[in-house]
Amino acid sequence: MKVLYLNGPNLNMLGIREPTIYGALTLKQIEHQVQEKAQELGIQIEFRQSNHEGSLIDWIHEASGIFDAIILNAGAYTHTSIAIRDAVSSIKVPVVEIHLSNVHAREEFRKKSFIAPVCAGVIAGFGAESYTLALIAVSGLLAKQHH
Ligand code: DQA
């Protein structure tokens, strides 16, 4: 089982960026935490990050036939990108939307996700834990599919 983690704009700045909102861990450190959980669950993971909408879209398309699921933190594109939503709709691979912060407890503009309606589910507000919780969710989802 292979799961692709896609991280959108500004997530390369984790650790430095607004630590009171996003936590003190870097994306690399989060990846290491997730790696431990992945080994426990017998899942192979790959982490990618881009500040470019088009790169995220290309990676979503290319995941078909290679990855069993995508865990997507689209960053601010969550609230703006119809193009990423359409990319998610264009593949059969299930996508789980995640956020470090509880987007519903913040500014009004963060409450709207263009991507959530075409996702299998959403996990938000648990900091770096959101990344591992999504992996647990995905492993359950895929186990159900294979029955
Ligand atoms: C985020 C929430 C978004 O609103 C924000 O633009 C981000 C990070 C999160 O993980 O909490 O870049 O996706």
In the sheet with the most strands, the strands line up as 2-1-3-4-5
Report the bound ligands by name, code or SMILES: 1,3,4-trihydroxy-5-OXO-cyclohexanecarboxylic acid
Helix content: 25-40%
- The CATH architecture term is 3-Layer(aba) Sandwich
Note the beta-strand portion: 15-25%
Q: Mean pLDDT, nearest integer? A: 97
Order of helices and strands: EHHEHEHEEH
CATH superfamily grouping: Dehydroquinase, class II
How many domains comprise the coordinates? 1
CATH secondary-structure class: Alpha Beta
Distance between the termini: 15 Å
Question: Which structural class best describes the helix and strand composition?
Answer: alpha/beta
CATH topology (level 3) name: Rossmann fold
The shape, in one word, is globular
Q: Determine Rg (CA atoms, Å).
A: 14 Å
Characterise this structure:
This protein is an alpha/beta fold and 147 residues long. The protein has one domain (2-145): Rossmann fold (3-Layer(aba) Sandwich), CATH 3.40.50.9100. Helices cover 37% and strands 18% of the residues. The chain has five helices and five strands, in the order βααβαβαββα. A five-stranded parallel β-sheet has the order 2-1-3-4-5, sandwiched between helices. Helix 3 packs parallel to helix 4. The longest helix is centred in the C-terminal third of the chain and has 17 residues, at 129-145. The protein is globular and about 40 Å long. It starts with a strand and ends with a helix. The structure holds 1,3,4-trihydroxy-5-OXO-cyclohexanecarboxylic acid. Residues 10, 73, 75-76, 78, 99-101, 103, 110 line the site of 1,3,4-trihydroxy-5-OXO-cyclohexanecarboxylic acid.
